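Help!! Second protein's tokens look totally different from the first
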Amino acid sequence: MFSAKGIVVFGLIAMAILIGLLVKLRIDKASQPASAQTYGNIAGLSVDQVKGVDHLVESHIAPTGLFTLEDQLDSLGVEVYAEDQWSAVPDPSLGIGSKIEIVRATPIKVVDAGKETEYRTWQATVGEFLAEAGIDVDDDDVVNREFSTPLGQDLEIVITRVGVTEEIETEAIDYEVIKKNDSTLEKGITQLEQTGKNGERTKKYAVRYENGVEVERQLVSNEVTVESQAEITLIGTKVLTYGSGEATWYSWKSGGAAHNTLPFGTKVRVVNLSNGKSTIVTINDRGIYGSAIIDLDTDSFAAIAPLGAGRIDVRLEKVYE
């Protein structure tokens, strides 16, 4: 019968033998040709295929004296991700060293609307991975890979988020300014007949955004939604007359004339009705006797008729500056 102490010693010897065999196995693998030790330019890796996708398999020998997997991995400088699968034999808690085998999940880089995120997965295709990761892709969005594309090491998936929206713009239509002559209004007088009002034009655009940036704007419709109303101003053309009758002449100050009722200083345009000629005089005298309505100085009379005419038919008009 073995004593308890003997059993413990025997167990330790067996473990030491096992570790020795594992170390020898690792050395034997390292001595194999380089072509058997290389995967994707990384030496010392093997490959395990799951669902048609190659997964990297790493084998590490942890030193003795460490009693947790975390400590063993830290001593080796090896990082294990939550998605990776691993095994350690014998159990790290024994502290006699372990052979650690890690099967890596497939690393995937996703650039979604310009934001880069690293994922790890055991799915086989792009579509299966996007579903697993909860990444929704709308019909308008653009993905650089078909959903059926098999996953591989360091595959990059780029998603361009596309949005097409309708945008409406309005712009004012300036009203037209119209000026109309009106013979019923006295010359020099203006009157607003109609107030001007701006109209409105509505434009609809189909706007395409990629990752939040406008890349295209297409005019869909262009309509006048409110008609403008012209501003109409009436311009008086009616010339006020002081009457018609006979004009005579007498020797008086040049540019002056006599009238029995118009205020002194009133300027009057005297129009010869027979030839249309006219002259402007200033009322500065009275004392007309007989049928004449105005008595002109000789220069003013001569400007519209020969002095020998003596009397002519005229129309007296208001002078507008």
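Here's the second one for comparison:
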Amino acid sequence: MDFLGELRVEATLENLRTVSHFLHGIGQRLSLDERTLFHLDLALEEAATNVVDHAYLHGSTQAGELLLRAEVVEDSLRLTLTDWGAPLDPDAVQPFDLGASVEARIQGGMGLHFIHSLMDDVVRRTAPAPGGPNTLTLVKHIERPSPAEGMPDTRPPTTLQELRAMLAVSQIAAPSADPEDLVQLILREVKSAIDAERAMLYWMDDGRGELVSRVWLATTGEWREVRVALGEGIAGQVALAGEALNLHYHPDDQRCMRVFDQMTAFGCRTILAVPMHTPLDVLVGVLQVLNKGRESASPVQAFTPRDERLLRAMATQAAIVIENARRHAQAV
């Protein structure tokens, strides 16, 4: 067992960013890949938020404490979160229901389900008496990249910005809203959060096994539906492989479908696309952003690994919102 460090802070929302900074420091030391670090960050933030919101009595003159310990055991990273407040009883939490509304999911164990889905193991120990230590250990298998693979982007993320972006998508509308209206609202939030010139969303047509989107034709001033086969173009490859793509546009790159630029009169320079999966790993579609920063930006800006983490987080929330709206539409 290799001890990596400890962090002891007051259990306040303001210190969630400090917790994230600590984790990213651990990620840098271990050369964690982006996906692993992203999963750890989301699960740890959810667990720490639960401590802040529920472990200690609100209105107390003194904030409770939160202790985070990090260690490597064989091929796994163990993050142990300790508090001395009221223990959480998982059996008292309403079970997570994928078919329920977004609001009901948030209130019905979505956070716990989220943590268990992202981690390889979760161990909870509660104190036998009030005031004793309650611990939650998050276990994640880690694979350290070879030197040739390079180091991940470990700049501390703006946790508040990421949280607001995800909440903006998850709370964007009621389940009864029209799915196409939801798409436009989601794209607006995504474009703003990532600082992209344009955003596109492809949703999965399970009946035909294709991705479907709509593009604005500048020449005619109307929307046109476009369909992409799995494996075709950037979106099709992202959907088929289930992995993100982050690249500079090049007309000779066969993955870049020039027909879209010709149809829309839009000049694409950089592309970032991620798959949209529900917490149960059901593919809902692909979320794609085009052109980082302003059109006049020179040299051309590339989307960063941090942009990818944020887009992945928003894509997961968007998948839940859209799938919920589609289920509602089918039931009506």
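Reply: Different proteins will give different token patterns, so don't panic. DSSP finds nine helices and eleven strands in the chain.
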